[in-house]
UniProtKB/TrEMBL annotation:
Residue numbers spanned by region Disordered: 55-87
Species in which this protein is naturally found: Phaeobacter inhibens
InterPro entries documented for this protein: Phage_Znf_bind_put
Domain DNA-binding phage zinc finger: start-end pairs: 6-48
Keywords: Plasmid
Stated name of the protein: DNA-binding phage zinc finger domain-containing protein
Basic and acidic residues composition-biased segments: 55-64
Length: 87
């Protein structure tokens, strides 16, 4: 099971479906150069795994030198119904 807090970036917890880099390794361009960003498919895969593991209300945040999962981190940023106008 991927550990999203174990790496320098949470997306590093999953293998890249695109360039096949193993967990913990940054994405590579076909030229062999280190990519400046992760492949979109890897970010999608990390999202999916994260929600599988922690649920749709969880978020991951930078804490000091590492990362921490907040199980309710997304609750506050969900759109809420407008308060009804005073009559
Ligand atoms: Zn990649």
């Amino acid at each position: 099971m991927p550990d999203f807090t174990a790496h320098r970036h949470p997306v590093l917890a999953v293998r890249c479906p695109d360039c096949r880099r193993a967990p913990g390794n940054w994405c590579r361009r076909p030229s062999g150069h280190m990519a400046s960003d992760f492949h979109a498919s890897r970010k999608a895969e990390a999202d999916r795994e994260f929600i599988d593991q922690h649920g749709p209300d969880a978020s991951i945040e930078r804490v000091g030198d590492g990362w921490a999962v907040d199980p309710r981190g997304r609750v506050g940023i969900r759109p809420r119904p407008e308060p009804s106008a005073p009559s």
